[in-house]
Specification:
The protein is an alpha+beta fold. The protein has 2 domains: about 180 residues, Fructose-1,6-Bisphosphatase, Chain A, domain 1 (2-Layer Sandwich), CATH 3.30.540; about 260 residues, no CATH class. It is built from 16 helices and 7 strands. It has a 5-stranded mixed β-sheet. Strands 6-7 form a two-stranded antiparallel ribbon. Strand 6 and strand 7 form a beta hairpin. It is globular, with a radius of gyration of 23 Å. It starts with a helix and ends in a 23-residue tail after the last helix.
């Protein structure tokens, strides 16, 4: 266990290093206000594919206002000069017809991965959809800044190299990001063809603020006594942001590392959703295990990464979103049940308790079970791999009573195309346990209330929870 006094001192210094800006000067700049207003007005004229069917004169006036604002703001972003110049060209070309937008040229000129400097700001404007937000390709505008503390730069420059990873913080945004979306991915942009992507941005401030509010409320509801480090993590937004950056750095690179099936596992494949659950959980459990190792090398945030993964997975992931093929939800359910069935997590006398000394071993065992599944898949046909993955999940979680998959290969169309197997999976193949049904009723409003949350609006729902530390 980290010495709390020395750890707290280090945490305070780290928090000071990465404290969010005061109200940024660009947020109150009139050119940003004009740009944001023009983008919002354009959204009202666009259809789902980004076209503008009617009101072309109004739309062209809005595009002129938007591009004039981009040009006025451009001197604040000399590192993005080529991108912003190309962006103006793309907008004016689109305004000639207002057909399906094509912003490939400006997208290919945007390279935030080349400028990972702490506090560096970017202006991002594209017709795009926002994951967990708008599904239409509307004009969205975002002001953001990079989060790149020194210890992350050191990690990334060594064995955790990830040249595509760009952790960021919101400064301001249009409606598509007033949602649950916490990522900015180039593949969401409207474009004529798909290039090789060179970056992906994750809003660590939203992740951290959402985590602090949900985990704090969950601890209060379940009566969970928090270790001092965990309580401090929930109390400190900057520390939580840094922790999520470290988690995301390791998670993101894990998708392409390890003994994987030959095809890229998550790319353009239609599979039973529990396979996506195992892939996302594999990456998080790899990050957890790596954090255990890094804790032994003296990296102060490594212990906090373990708390963040555990609490976010078992509290927020498990009951967030619908029950229709919710692969992140299933991963949270699986982790909770695995820990409970190994007597590391206890729900007794209507209180939750955790054997903290046993957590690392139990999490490692689940990670190794998934790793072994992947390793064996290299020698298995696809259908056999899918059946083995189902067996792993169903050995811990109870399937729906009407499940065809639960009846085994004899009940499944194993001789037909894989589509038949995927279609046989129920939308809620592994329903919530009675524990999670009750927790969802108590915590659901808190989770839903985190839509659009940022560093400036987030935080623990109940400060009293943060003093509830384990002895």
């Amino acid at each position: 266990m980290v010495n709390l006094i020395s750890w707290a001192g280090a945490g305070t210094a780290a928090a000071a290093e990465t404290a969010p800006s005061r109200i940024d000067d660009l947020v109150v700049d009139r050119h940003w206000s004009h740009l944001k207003a023009a983008a919002t007005a354009l959204q009202a004229l666009q259809s789902a594919d980004g076209c503008v069917a009617d009101g072309h004169d109004e739309a062209r006036a809005l595009v002129e206002r938007l591009t004039a604002s981009i040009e006025a703001l451009a001197p604040h972003f000399p590192h993005d000069a080529d991108y912003l110049a190309a962006l103006v060209v793309d907008f004016r070309r689109w305004a000639e017809t207002f057909g399906v937008p094509d912003f490939l040229d400006s997208l290919q000129a945007f390279h935030p991965e080349r400028h990972r400097v702490h506090g560096l700001r970017h202006l991002v404007v594209f017709p795009m959809y926002t994951q967990n937000g708008s599904t239409s390709r509307l004009v969205e505008a975002v002001l953001l800044e990079v989060i790149w503390p020194e210890f992350i730069a050191d990690l990334e420059s060594g064995e955790h190299s990830n040249k595509l990873f760009v952790p960021v913080r919101f400064l301001d945004f249009t409606a598509g990001y007033d949602t649950n979306s916490a990522v900015l991915f180039p593949e969401t942009v409207a474009m004529r063809s798909v290039p090789q992507f060179t970056w992906g941005a994750i809003f660590a401030d939203r992740e951290a603020a959402r985590f602090r509010r949900v985990a704090g409320a969950a601890a209060a509801i379940t009566g969970l006594a928090l270790p001092p480090e965990a309580a401090a993590l929930l109390a400190d937004q900057q520390l939580a942001e840094e922790t999520f950056v470290m988690w995301d750095l390791i998670h993101d690179r894990t998708h392409m590392h390890g003994d994987l099936p030959f095809d890229p596992f998550m790319i353009k494949q239609r599979m039973p959703f529990f396979l996506y659950s195992l892939e996302e959980l594999r990456c998080d459990l790899t990050a957890f295990r790596e954090a255990v190792r890094l804790e032994g090398t003296g990296i102060g945030h490594a212990r906090l990464v373990q708390y963040a993964i555990l609490f976010d997975r078992i509290f927020r992931f498990a009951i967030t979103g619908s029950r229709v093929r919710n692969y992140d939800g299933l991963g949270g359910q699986l982790l909770f049940a695995w820990l409970h069935q190994r007597h590391v997590l206890h729900w007794t006398d209507n209180r939750l308790s955790i054997d903290w000394n046993g957590v690392a071993g139990a999490v490692t065992a689940l990670g190794e079970a998934i790793d072994d599944l992947y390793w064996r898949s290299i020698d298995r046909p696809k259908v056999s791999h899918w059946l083995a993955a189902y067996a792993l999940v169903s050995s811990t979680l109870t399937p729906h009573p009407a499940s065809v998959w639960a009846r085994g290969a004899g009940a499944l169309p194993v001789d037909g195309p894989p589509k038949g197997l995927t279609d046989a999976v129920l939308p809620d193949e592994f329903p919530l346990s009675m524990f999670y049904e009750a927790l969802s009723r108590k915590l659901g409003d808190v989770i839903r209330g985190t839509a659009g949350i940022t560093a400036s609006t987030g935080g623990a729902a109940d400060r009293g929870v943060l003093g509830q530390s384990a002895a």
